[in-house]
Amino acid sequence: MKRILIISCLMLSFTVHAFCQRAAVESAFDKYHINRIAIDSLTQHNELRFNFDLITTIVTESSQKIYKAHHDASKTGEEAWALQSVNNGNPSGSDRSTFKKQHDQHIPALKPDTSTFKLVKDDGKELVVSFQYDQTSMIDDNKFMKDCLVKLFFDATTGKLLRSEGSITNSFKIKMFKANYLASTVIYQYNEVIERYLPLKEEVSINLNILGSAVDMITTNEYSNYQQP
Can you tell me the distance from the alpha carbon of 46 to that of 198, in angstroms, rounded to the nearest whole number? Predict the structure, then answer.
């Protein structure tokens, strides 16, 4: 009986703490007039709503590839993407296959777990909020993100989101590979008309174990010319 009571008290304490953290975040959003609709747009696929150009650069210790592509939201599935060049040359069949896998739209967008909201910093100039993703929104292809800690950085004077940062610091598996860490940064622009944040530049660094060696891979995505079809 005593053991059950202790466990119940611990669970209650955790629930109250999580509620207080979420309440503190909500209060900060209100204080700085942060648009919640725009924040919610971070978890939605822009591919479903916009035409845009994309330059993807993938760099490892031994190679670099630059993919230039255009996305047409009026089309569906694979037809929506046009891979225009790779390293300024015509894409090979292998290039097209790799690009297709990188932009597989069946993978759902990750959603934040509101119970993990935490107020990291609020000094009147910068507001920083952290959270983890809701594991119920994951499938096998992105379940490795369950341990990712995400931070949102806001300009407190304007209430606008400046960037997001994500990190996984413990080892994890991504498909057939073991990874040692992951770090990502996304810089956004705000569209006043549609109240939506759109990524301008995204950089993802990951350290993989391949054939017994640790290999760093950096992927940079640069978005431009957003238009609604």
Answer: 8
Instruction: Let me know: does 153 contact 131? Beta carbons within 8 Å.
Output: no
- List, for residues 119-164, the tens digit of each pLDDT value: 999 999 999 999 999 998 788 888 899 999 999 999 999 999 999 9
Look at the chain and count its residues.
229
Q: Look at the chain and report how many structural domains it folds into.
A: 1
Question: Which range marks the domain in which residue 31 is found?
Answer: 2-227
Among residues 134, 142, 127, 223, the alpha carbon closest in space to that of 182 is found at: 142
* Whole-angstrom distance, CA of residue 114 vs CA of residue 175: 27
pLDDT in tens, 5-31: 333 333 333 333 344 577 889 899 999
What is d(CA 114, CA 134) in angstroms, rounded to the nearest whole number?
A: 8
- Residues ≥6 apart with Cβ < 8 Å to 46: 52, 198, 199, 226
Distance CA 110, CA 139 (A): 10
Going by C-alpha positions, the residue among 163, 115, 153 that lies closest to residue 135 is 115
Distance CA 53, CA 74 (A): 14
Per-residue pLDDT at 223 exceeds 60: yes
Q: Which of 4-8, 58-62, 199-203, 225-229 has the highest mean pLDDT?
A: 199-203
